[in-house]
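Practice problem: predict the structure.
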Amino acid sequence: MNYNTTFRHEHAESKSGHKLKQTRVDSIGDLVIKLRGIIKLKRVMKHLLFAPIIAAITLIFIVACSIDKSDKVIELQMADTDSDGYINLYDVDDDGDGLIEIRGIADFNMVRNNLDGTGMSSTRGQKGEIYGCGGGITLEGEPIDSCHGYELVADISLIDYAKWQPIGSCSANNECEDAFNAVFEGNGHTISDLSINIDRVAFGVGLFGAISPDSELRNIHVRNSMVVFEPEGEPYDVGILVGHARGAYIEGSSVVGGDIYTTAFDAGGLIGDGEGATVTYSYVDVGIIKGASEVGGLIGGGASSNILYSCASASIIYGKEEVGGLVGDGKNAMIISSYAVGDITKGETAVGDLAGEDQNINVKDSYTMENTQEFGCFEMISMDNLTPNIQLAENIR
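Answer:
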């Protein structure tokens, strides 16, 4: 069979007398291609005909979902989740656990107005709204009848705050009458895009400037930070999570992605001054930490501190003296199952891979490790051999 046969229809006339369009098909292959084109055109026309109908159905679906979502939000707001007599719309503690819900940056910014965590206040120094505080029961079965802190219920970005003002402060070195004095539970949520640039002498710089010995920070994860604190004079205590945290308790928290440039004494990736503090199950993975003295990957000033199941990794940690991969000043500290990752410490005197000043330090199952792409701080504290000894942590606390 000759597949190259040429078919021609030359200027044939229709019955109406109109000339038909000349069609030339040089081969059966060309005929197939033209037929495919006609079929595709019909499909396109079909889709064009149905497009308005599809668009209308989609719009109806979106509106229906929005209405359904709005109804659910209204239903949730009008509910009384913890059965304390206050609907959620006005209840500052929906679940009755004594912790005020922080739903966004506006709420978080108001924490500074009530540092004791007893109410949500829009005015500094006032107790604020306490509607619905408590209503639940403790693990021991005791009723909760008031609020004693805050809890994140959503991730927060500080991108619109070019110069964040720390929550809580000290008027002088170790004089901290305005320190945060409550519980802050992060519930595993992140606070991102922290930017601090302070050019005056201060005592306590970080997301939290200063917290009291009775306070607790739990399960807070800070991401993408830049802290610049280089005033003239002698500033103290700078950390990305908290600047001054003597005697406080920090659990399950982390800082990933960030740098510190400061002339302050006591500078750390997580905590600046953590003398006597307890830090458990926490880690830091940052770039540069540059300070004056008592500079550490996790804690700067960490004399008599307790560091358990924690880790610090940085590109470089630099200071004049008492510079350590995990803690700068580690006098009388206890370090258990904790790690510093990388050869990262630079300084003049009292420089160590794990601790700078290590007088009377108590170290158990803790090491420094080379920085590799396979193992960072997160991987190390997640490994089976670092399974937390919760009872030990509770006893130390």
